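Protocol step 4 of 6: structure prediction from sequence.
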Amino acid sequence: MGAPDFKQVANLWSLWDYPSAAEPWSLEQQLDAVQGAGFDGITAQLGPRHAREAEKRGLFVVGYFSSGDEEGFADLLKSQKDAGACHINVQLADHDTDPADALRLTLRLMEEAERIGGLAPSIEVHRDTCTETPEKAYALAEGYFKATGELLPMTWDFSHFAVVKHLTPENYVERLLVRPELIQRSQQFHFRPFNGHHCQVPVTRGDGGLTQELNDWLPFVGAAMRTWLEGNAGADRALIVVPEMGPVRGGYNLAQLPNSWEEAVRLRPLLEAVWHDMTIPVENLRRVRPNQAIERDRGVWPSAPKSSP
């Protein structure tokens, strides 16, 4: 059997105010750029126009919404399905949502998705939601398992836990990959470069080379992908990855740093290279050094595709 499918989707918020706030691109221009940069699809809170334009370009779509209003779940889910999404990323409720309420909301969300059919919602690990800390997220997953006998599908954005727990590159793996069964159950991953103080660090340093912080983070991505593959080798499933770089508007990026869209474009082939390294046939693994170092002078992961992003 071959490796599972690997899809990289662009979060359209990386294109906010691009190329400028005064003259931002239209949706059509954005999707042309997404396609031209080699992404497989897009993610956003989708509407009919997203569906129409993505279909024209053969782009895969992942839905999104943020809500704690259980009475509105059915309409939100249906709106994303109507726009062509099967996979939907959900930022659920708020930072002060009671754990019992969080579980009730999760069960209602999944019940509505099952009733509608053809949907695979995932609860995102995210600050200012009911999963903002490891303790809250894992308690929700455990409650869901007790109630349903099933593992909770989650969207993993490890940057939030890293900041909450003040981590360092030396303990990313030890502290963030502690629930492999939940990682393996999931399909959506938001790989945004981070460290223990910033949930987003730059990909490039302004001269085209990669930042030290990005180089420190990439081995963790490899470990996360390896963990996922250990439970999905040969499976008919897709790993759906967002090379996520947030814009200045919203506070993730800083005005003096490289813009979020061009950073996301640069990040995409680096993540593809990590995936390639993790899916080398087993008989060839002995040829690859564990935790293979990044060639810092070249500023690229060793197996990065030769073509420019």
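Step 5 (inspection) to follow. The chain has one domain: 5-287.
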